Amino acid sequence: MLEAREALFATLAHDLKTPLLAGLRALEYLEQADTIGAQQRKQVLHELWTELSGAYQLVENLLTASRMENQRPQLEPILLLSLLENMRLRFQRRAAEKGVTLVVSGSGQARADRYLLERALTNLIENALRFTRSRIVLRCGEGWVEVEDDGPGLQEPLEQLSQPFRSQRLRGIRAGSAGLGLFIVRRVAELHGGSLHDSRGPLGGACLRIRLG
After folding, report:
1. What are the backbone angles phi and psi of residue 76, rounded to the nearest 5°?
2. Fewer C-beta within 10 Å: the chain N or C terminus?
3. Chief location of this protein (predicted)?
4. pTM here?
5. CA–CA separation, 166 vs 179, rounded Å?
6. Contact at 8 Å (CB) between 123 and 117?
7. Are 1 and 86 members of one domain?
8. Is 102 within 8 Å of 92 (Cβ atoms)?
9. Average per-residue pLDDT in the chain?
10. What is the pLDDT of residues 166-211, one digit of tens each?
11. pLDDT, position 78
12. In the chain, what is the greatest distance between 2 CA atoms, to the nearest angstrom?
């Protein structure tokens, strides 16, 4: 148990240190480079944003994991199409910057914890953006939501990818990551009496569905 805890802390420390260190270096570069062009400055700022965003997502996942252990889901009726539209708007700019089309379809309702469901969808969309080629579809039906991309698909079984605190270079877990993303998604589904499933969708990539009871 002690060894596992030490390994966990070491992984989390590494995952936070890496983007923060990269961000500090980017800031130092911008401070010292008075003559760089606008395009290069924009690129450095984008890299800075990417690194800090990664650290922020890790902290959010840690807070979500803590909340799931200490609080029951706060269920409320949710119009799933409206929720997916909000998620699309949240990620639309990043998708456009990568040349990715983000589409929403379907209809349905569910009783769910809005915060937890948004966190699970955020993790799935982040994952899809990392691997997609050109298109991501957010779908919903009665009691379920899913995220599909046209990337290479899962390279390992979902059961393995959704285990916490993994550091292997697996699809769904960025290099050096504590691997909380898909673990959070699976636990959110389970806390709602549901489950997380993967399949090959029409786009040919990964298609991950959250069933909510």
Report:
1. -150, 155
2. N
3. membrane
4. 0.73
5. 5
6. no
7. no
8. yes
9. 82
10. 544 333 334 334 457 898 899 999 999 999 999 988 999 999 999 9
11. 97
12. 58
Residue in 136, 132, 138 with CA at minimum distance from that of residue 117:
138
Neighbours of 171 (CB within 10 A): 17
Answer yes or no: are the C-beta atoms of 202 and 141 closer than 8 Å: no
Out of 55, 70, 85, a domain closes at 70
Please indicate, yes or no, whether residues 54 and 155 belong to a single structural domain of this protein: no
pLDDT higher than 50, residue 61: yes
* pLDDT tens digits for range 107-142: 999 999 999 999 999 999 999 999 999 999 999 999
E-strand stretches of 82-194: 101-106, 109-113, 135-141, 144-149
Domain hosting 10: range is 1-70
Residue at a domain's end among 46, 70, 94: 70
- Residue 44: which residues within 8 A CB-CB, separation 6 or more? 26, 29, 30, 36
Task: Name the β-bridge partners of 210.
Answer: 145, 196
- Residue 87 has φ and ψ, to the nearest 5°, of -65, -40
- Same domain flag for 39 and 106: no
Residues 87 and 174 in one domain: yes
The token duo for 92 is: 């639309």
| Dist. CA 25–CA 70, nearest whole Å | 37
Please tell me the total count of domains within the chain: 2
Judgement on whether residues 81 and 174 belong to the same structural domain of the protein: yes
Name the residue with tokens 């990551």: 177
